Amino acid sequence: MLTLADGVRLHVSVSGPEDAPITVVLSHGWCQDRRTWRHQIAALGEMGRKAPRVVAYDTRGHGRSSATRLRGATLAQLGDDMAEVIRRYAPSGPVVLAGHSMGGMTIMEYAHRHPEEYASRVSGLLLVSTTAEGHTHTRYGLPPQLANVLRIGETLGAGLLARSGAWRPHRAVLPALRPALRWLLFGDECAEEAMLLTMRGLGRAPLRSIGGFRESIGTQARLDTLADLGDLPSAVLVGGRDRLTPPACAESIAGALPGADLTVVPGAGHMLPLERPREVSDALITIVRRVARQAKRNRRQIATPTRRSQKAA
């Protein structure tokens, strides 16, 4: 458990070798929790001697972390929280960041608010089903005019929920919401386990978190931040049927992020880590391996002049 400066406690899970040369930090989406990454955590653990250290945490106001005050329900605050997580649980060595949906936006805020720290620590990046342009491309799979009406209603409703406190009355009606959630969040296929985990995550999120983060999520604009990042191993994944962050979001990110590999997964929706776990795991493992090779080359370059100096002496 990590206690932040404002008293919020983050639930953090750490796995993998303590002496691993690389740390992977996983950030989940809005109204979900760290269990979104369960398949990827398992896949990284199966890398044997080359397995990285893995840090997965519940964002403030989500999962098993404590509730947040309304003024803390912003992407800017989440970027600062990520900085604290990295300082505490990955104080040295290369770091690979992976973010799903709001988690990807959190990474962008971290890069924006802590640019020097980001540049010195982050060696790999995976952005899954996310956006750097707020709700610019979000149409919910509906005609534009109807989508605009829905967005207005959603924004007004979010404002009311944000002021409703840390209780969770929506748990009682989640079964009735299941068909709508299935349509909104998933594509052609949806395993029962994936649906249940998604609903449980939503059930754990208090009303303040459901409504409070909506404003900063809808207005974020971080394409310029991405363009300023260095050329490092990175990948952008999106489902071809994603109704919340459609392929146009990923295409903009890949266009701004130097050297990023873009993958559009046919028939998939928004919950890619659960919906298409193998594709997401493979992309993450590929980045980890690339970062490991680069770190090994860097260590050799540092060691070679030292050996030459010893011989000369």
From TrEMBL:
Gene Ontology molecular function: any one: catalytic activity
Coiled-coil zones: none
Domain AB hydrolase-1 residues, every copy: 24-283
UniProt cross-references to SUPFAM superfamilies, sorted A to Z: alpha/beta-Hydrolases (SSF53474)
InterPro entries: AB_hydrolase_1, AB_hydrolase_fold, AB_hydrolase_sf, Epox_hydrolase-like
Superkingdom of the source species: Bacteria
Listed Pfam families: Abhydrolase_6
Name the UniProt record assigns to this protein: Pimeloyl-ACP methyl ester carboxylesterase
Organism lineage string: Bacteria, Bacillati, Actinomycetota, Actinomycetes, Micromonosporales
